[in-house]
Design goal:
The chain has 8 helices and 11 strands. The chain has about 220 residues and is an alpha/beta fold. Strands 2-1-3-4-5 form a 5-stranded parallel beta sheet, sandwiched between helices. It has a 4-stranded antiparallel beta sheet with strand order 6-7-8-9, covered by helices on one side. Helix 2 runs parallel beside helix 3, helix 6 crosses helix 8 and helix 7 packs across helix 8. The chain binds calcium ion (CA). The site of calcium ion has 5 residues, from loops.
Length: about 220
């Protein structure tokens, strides 16, 4: 899962990026409304965290422009404490959730996770498929035989993306866009390497290769 944080408070932004990366997300950041709007339009983010008070262009305008341009990425709006009108304006402009400042990072992570679940029509509980259970807190996978296997950051992000899109053909390009941030090197053969590592960890028949198309996490109905 790949996130964009648009926030001009540099210290807060640094802390959020570190905490969210720790929680298993690929994170890009922008410190003003103009860059934020551009980045949010260029890459397919799974969730965008948007501050309202931004230099360059106000957050509300950024959000309205995204929606007017057909960008429906889930957006969590950061509002000032007790500013109920900001929440209302945020929802009207197309926001999906809000969080009042100051907040605990844990609450933001919980809201991001809930929003991802909601967007992908998964309700509550752990992400699990055919006995394969993703433990998002410990960033490990529990196999149908009950074996718990640790995952690296990239493996975890990749597998979570697969598990949120079972039976869909996922191209290498799409996987790269959702698993890496801007700063990472993006070579498509790297996905091959990580898919093979996942196969070694969860069993090789879960992820099928579709020649010239990409990969499918197969889950029989
Ligand atoms: Ca601000």
């Amino acid at each position: 899962m790949r996130l964009l944080i648009v926030e001009d408070d540099a210290a807060l932004c640094r802390r959020l990026k570190a905490d969210l990366a720790q929680a298993g997300f690929a994170v890009d950041t922008a410190d003003n409304g103009v860059d934020g709007e551009f980045m949010g339009s260029e890459a397919p983010y799974d969730v965008i965290v948007l501050d309202l008070g931004l230099p360059g262009r106000p957050g509300l305008e950024v959000l309205k422009n995204w929606r007017a341009g057909g960008n429906h990425a889930p957006v969590i709006v950061l509002t000032a404490r007790d500013a109920w009108h900001e929440k209302v304006e945020g929802f009207k402009a197309g926001g999906d959730d809000y969080l009042a400042k100051p907040f605990h990072t844990e609450e933001l992570i919980a809201r991001i996770t809930a929003l991802i679940r909601r967007t992908n029509a998964k309700v509550g509980g752990r992400l699990s498929l055919r006995g394969l259970v993703l433990d998002e807190e410990r960033q490990c996978i529990v196999t149908p035989k009950g074996r718990s296997v640790a995952l690296s950051g990239v493996e975890f992000r990749l597998l979570r993306y697969f598990m949120l899109h079972p039976n869909a053909i996922l191209s290498k390009t799409r996987l790269i866009e959702h698993v890496y941030d801007f700063d990472s090197e993006k070579e498509s053969n790297v996905i091959e390497v990580y898919v093979n590592r996942l196969r070694r960890k969860i069993g090789k028949d879960w992820i099928e290769t579709r020649r010239g198309q990409g990969y499918v996490l197969r889950v029989p109905d």
